[in-house]
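Self-study notes.
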Amino acid sequence: MELRTACSPRDERNYDTSRLREEFLIDDLFKPDEIKLVYSQIDRIITGSAVPVEKELHLTAGDELRAEYFLQRREMGVINIGGDGVIVIDGKKYDVGFKQGMYIGMGARDISFASKEASKPAKFYINSAPAHKTYPTVLIKREGTPSDDVVIIKDENKKELGSLEQSNHRVINKYILPGQVESCQLEMGMTELKPGSVWNTMPCHTHDRRMEVYLYFEVPEDALVMHFMGEPTETRHIIMRNEQAVISPSWSIHSGCGTQSYTFIWGMVGENQDFDDMDDCDMSELR
C-alpha cells in the first residue's frame, strides 16, 4: 500500500508540475490481476483498484493498517467500470455489472474480486474510510428491483444539471449517501457528461468538512482532462488521462475541463455528509 502524506496549501503553491503529480495524482490503476491501494493521510481515505483477470483477488489489510483484516475499522465503496464481475463477501456472492456499485460495511472479513470473463475483466474502483459503526452491505444498481441487499438509485439522486450552451450538461448519479445507502462518512457517486459538454464542477467550490477524490474514465486515448485544484486565488492544474485519479484536499477546488466529454467517479470522506455543504467560489475571484 502506497502512503501519501497531507499537504499544506502554503506548500502546494510552490510545487512544480512533477511535484503536484507526485502528491495528488494516482496513476497506474487497474493493473491486470493486481490490487493497488493508496493510503492518504488526508482524512485517511484509501483509494484503489482490483482487476481480476486470470485469478480471484483477495483483499488483505497489509502491515500498513495494523488490523486483522481490511474492514476491521473501515467501510468501503466499490464501483465497477469494466466487464461483469463478482464480489464475494464472507461467503456471499454478489454479481456486479458495469457501473454498478457496492457499499461494504465495517466488519466484513473475507472480500474477494473475480471477473466473469477473462477477455472482459471487471475493473473495481475502491474508496475506503475509517468507520465507527456497521451499516448494511448492499449492491447498488441504477435500475431494477430493490431487495433486502439490493438498492436502486432513487430518481431524485439522478440529477441532470447544466446545459450544452454552458458546456456542462451532465447527470450526477449519487450511489452512497444518507437516505439511500447509509454509511459512517463515505459518499460516492458518478457524474456523466453529455456529448459536447466538457466542464465539471464549474462554478467550483470547496468544502472544509470533507475531502474528495476524483477518478476520470471514459476519456478517449487521444483526449485529456485538465483538472484544476488549489486555493481559489492560487489555482493549479494537473493533466489527467483515462482511468487516473486525483486527491483533492478540503481547502482545494476540484474542477475539470476535457478535450472531449468523459465520466468521473467522486468519493468524499469527512465529518459532514450533507451533500450541499459547500463553499461556492465566485467566478470573479478565481486566480
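Second protein, same conventions, sequence then structure:
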Amino acid sequence: MKTLIKVLVAGCFLISSSAFADDVIPVPAYKHKDLFVLKAHKKFKGAKVEVFHANGELITSHNMQKRKMIIDFGSVQRGTYVIRLTKGNEVQEYQYTSKHK
C-alpha cells in the first residue's frame, strides 16, 4: 500500500511539473547576475528575440534556435531593458534591470 501511495504521489508531481514546463519563464542565473535565462513555450521556437533599452533603442535582435536562450547583459549600461519575443501574432515581453556599472 505504501508503494502505491509513493507511485501516485510521484506521478502527480511529474504531471504537475510538466504542466508548468511549457510556460514562458524567465529564470535568473545564480552565479552571474548579468545573465537573463529565458525558457520559452515550444510555440516560440524560431521566434524573433529583440532587446530594447527603456528609451526604445534596439540593442540586439536574434532568432530563438531552441526553447532556451541566455542573454548576457554584462556589457550594457545600467538601466531597464525590454526583452520581446515575437512569432506571428504572438508577443511576449519581459523586463530586465541592469545594475551593472
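Instructor comment on the second fold: The radius of gyration is 18 Å.
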